[in-house]
């Protein structure tokens, strides 16, 4: 199953979050949008979100806890 959340971050950036899950388990997470971050940081962020953990990365335009909240909405 794919849960897709398209939203405006608190800082006004467009974010597209896709959570791929199967039988209640998160298989993959994709985060895209008009925010700014290093590609390696995005990959680390996606892995951390998959484990439902906040990532210590700098993303200009979105807050990591905001993404984690949306991921939890997808799996609940």
Give a verbal description of the structure.
The chain has a single domain, classed as Enolase-like, domain 1 (2-Layer Sandwich), CATH 3.30.390. 14% of the residues are buried. It has two helices and three strands. A three-stranded antiparallel β-sheet has the order 1-2-3. The protein is α+β, with helices and mostly antiparallel strands and 76 residues long. The model has no long low-confidence stretch (mean pLDDT 95).
Counting DSSP H or I runs of 4 or more residues, the number of helices is 2
How many DSSP-defined strands?
3
Task: Tell me the series of helices and strands, N- to C-terminal.
Answer: EEEHH
Shape: globular
Fold blueprint:
Elements lengths: L1 E7 L5 E9 L2 E9 L5 H12 L13 H12 L1
Antiparallel strand pairs: 1-2, 2-3
GO molecular function, one term: ATP binding
Catalytic activity: L-lysyl-[lipoyl-carrier protein] + (R)-lipoate + ATP = N(6)-[(R)-lipoyl]-L-lysyl-[lipoyl-carrier protein] + AMP + diphosphate + H(+)
EC number: 6.3.1.20
Short overview:
Pathway: Protein modification; protein lipoylation via exogenous pathway; protein N(6)-(lipoyl)lysine from lipoate: step 2/2; Protein modification; protein lipoylation via exogenous pathway; protein N(6)-(lipoyl)lysine from lipoate: step 1/2. Helix content is 32%, strand content 33%. It has helices at 39-50, 64-75; strands at 2-8, 14-22, 25-33.
